[in-house]
Every structure is written in structure tokens, then in C-alpha cells.
Amino acid sequence: MAWFLLFLAGLFEIGWAVGLKYTDGFTRPMPTAFTIISMIISIVLLGLAVKTLPMGTAYAVWTGIGTVGTVLLGIWLLGDPATLVRVACIALIVTGIAGLKLAT
What is the model's pLDDT at position 14? Predict the structure, then answer.
């Protein structure tokens, strides 16, 4: 269950990271509300996950999910470049996440 909560926390981290782009410097109320709510949910879920998972592992996986998801949505939604080096770096992060999951 802790891994599932951690995965959800990572998804909400993606939500707030991408949401920041749409807040326009926190001047747009709905995107700002979505972003703040996503931040709170992400932190709460991370807090629940670390009750049973090692802190370092949980934090690394949480940030890894957030990083990979944010980069992929940046490519898909915002037209960020999808260069070979960026994709290779994403693959390294995913490999690290999988390794931490297997080691715990």
C-alpha cells in the first residue's frame, strides 16, 4: 500500500509542477488552486508512504516520478524538445526508480 501511495504522491507532484506553468505567476485563480491542492495532496501522500518506506528511497522515487512525468508532459503539452540526450536521461531516472523499488 505504501508504494501505491508513493506512486499517487508522484502523480500529484507532476500535477503541481506542470500546474505552475498555468498559474501565470499565481495570478490565475483556478490553475493556482489546482496547483496548491496538488502540492498538499502530494506531500500528505508522501508523508503516509514514509511511515513504512525508508525516507531516502521514498523521497528519491517521489522526485523521480515527478521529474520524469513533468519532463514527459513538458514535451507532450508544452513543446519542450525531445532530444536523444533528454530521453536517455529520463531512462536513467526510470532505471534508478526501478532499482530503488527492487532494493527495498
Answer: 97
DSSP 24: T
Is the pTM higher than 0.85? The answer reads yes
Give the number of domains in the chain: 1
Q: What whole-number distance in Å separates Cα of residue 88 and Cα of residue 102?
A: 21
Pairwise CA distance, residues 82 & 27, whole Å: 29
Return the half-sphere exposure (C-beta side, CA atoms, 13 A cut-off) of residue 104.
19
Residue-wise pLDDT for 19-37, tens only, equals: 999 999 999 999 999 999 9
The CA distance from 6 to 68, in Å, is 15
Using a 10 angstrom Cβ sphere, with 0-12 exposed, 13-18 middle and 19 or more buried, the burial of residue 13 is: buried
| Domain hosting residue 70, numbered range | 2-103
